[in-house]
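Page header: ASSEMBLY MODEL / two components / 651 residues total.
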Amino acid sequence: MVAEMDQSHAAPMATLKGPRQLFLGLMFMKAPLAMLEKAGLTVEGDRAVVEAWQAAIETPEATFNIVTP
Amino acid sequence: MIRALAGVALSALIVAQAAFAQEAPKPASAATIAAQKAAKAALPKEDGKDLEFARRGFIATSKEPVIVSAKGEPLWNFHAYDFLKGDAPATVHPALWRHQSLLKENGLFKASEGVWQVRGFDISNMTLIAGKTGWIIVDPLTRTDVAKAALGLANEKLGARPVAAVIYTHSHSDHFGGVKGIVSAEDVKAGKVQIIAPEHFVEEAASENVIAGPAMGRRATYQFGVGTPPGVQGSMGSGIGSGLSGGEISMIPPTLIIRKTGETHVVDGVTLEFQMVPETEAPAELNVMLPERRTFLVGEIAVCSQHNVLTPRGALVRNTLRWAGFLSEALRLYADRSDTLVASHCWPRFGNGEVKSFLTAQRDNYKFLHDQSVRLMNNGLNATELAEQIVPTPELAANWSTHGYYGTYNHNAKAVSQRYIGWYDANPANLNPHIPTERAKRLVAALGGADRVLALGKAAMAQGDYRWSSDLLSQLVFAEPGNTAAKALLADSFEQQGYQAESALWRNMFLTGASELRHDAVKLNTAVSLDLAAAIPSGMLLDSVATRLVPAKVADEESDQSGVHRSQRKGGDHASERCDGG
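Prediction written out in full:
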């Protein structure tokens, strides 16, 4: 994944617009897309692409073992 | 939003609130008793100066034994280290016992004319400078409630004053997180309060640990001994303070950015002369000279302990050479004009001679550490080997303030090597070894099996060779994670290493390791400050989420496999975001 600030993709498959908090919810809390849309996130283009992208994001657990494998 | 960002897990921001497991600590072994005796015999001469400095100017402390939140949750216990009386027990290194005995002093202290400190209300100190109309606060602690309590004590004992300005010395949260406990964002916005910080403060404060946050957060539980309560067989603080406070971390962005050494501002009638010291203890950091009060505020680049070149929780390696250079510069620019030195951790130094000798010893220590590590590195020693050979000069060894209660010569020397030449020791045998579990299985088999390794571990422990017993038994635990005898013995071995450690961090790490072998890993509240979440640059958030993408889960997508995302920032903390996925 490559992110470039202030640059627009020539042919995006999907475009998301909304307040910062909703992006945080999408990426880090993995809140359901439908819920975020109700809260004001807009999705233009292929919604399935956004859902697949979100599904591919993992949430690291901060309780991994250290002194045992 | 705190919950929304729980996964970001900024390790410097974690609330050290854990479900404490019941420990089953063992007494000091004969070997540990002997090691403590030897350590005691090698201690610097006790002249009583540190205790006198730690107590000088004492005015009063909190009437309450514990600072609690509005909900009644305990946030800071002033009596956590009341057990520190008399000689060190065999379960604590004598220098660390002495050190934490000094750090536990708490209250409001006069440092110099018009300058006070509240110490022992958090891991860091709050410095208060009396201006014409109000307080100039340097470093408002880590959390809002403890900051409020500290300022409340000063106002009660010295007369209530408004806060005219706040200085953040650097970008670590224990130096800014309590700000909303002493001033409001509205007052700052209205121009009633000035917030002063070094260049790049906001970016660094928000960004440190974002990308590597989960790993750092987990490792920080070891470094700070989360789940290991204070005690003669438990935690002995952090080496630069008694521990981390609880409560809310806040941040108000600065209104005045300091960019150059020598930059001088008159704030509320007080002349503030700044020294920039970036890329040392923090990526954005400054010191402050108060010329009218002949007081030098050294932030965190010279404290009562050797600091970390690479903090064990993990970070980018700091620049030791630059660190020593800035201390030379401080000696040249400020030492002659200073009768008092105050720092954002630990106790002050009083008298011009003391200021000079303290800064000189601190500078010499970092320079020695750097130069000798590099010399040995250039002679072909790898990090482990050179760390073994870094032995302080008699002059440095005789100075209490250069000892390793926080950072150590051992892990700092390895860090210097890492900064210059990285993890690889150039021995191809170490270029591509088996992963730890596979290597452990083969080693255990080669050594004759689990029972044999267990016996070898016991024999090493009986001889007091805990470095070797921990090494052997760790191999066995990695080969056979279900081997309870190996885990129990490894816990005992770690524990003795912890007891013998001069560094509070090493002690915490060994004892937390032992605890984890005996019990489960400590669960943390990894809530993130709303203010800091708002300050994380959008580009950095996207970089962070990119590190969480699982390739196998996107492999089937028809999209461009680079997963290019482009975002436009409209400005402001709550700006509309646009993300084009192609």
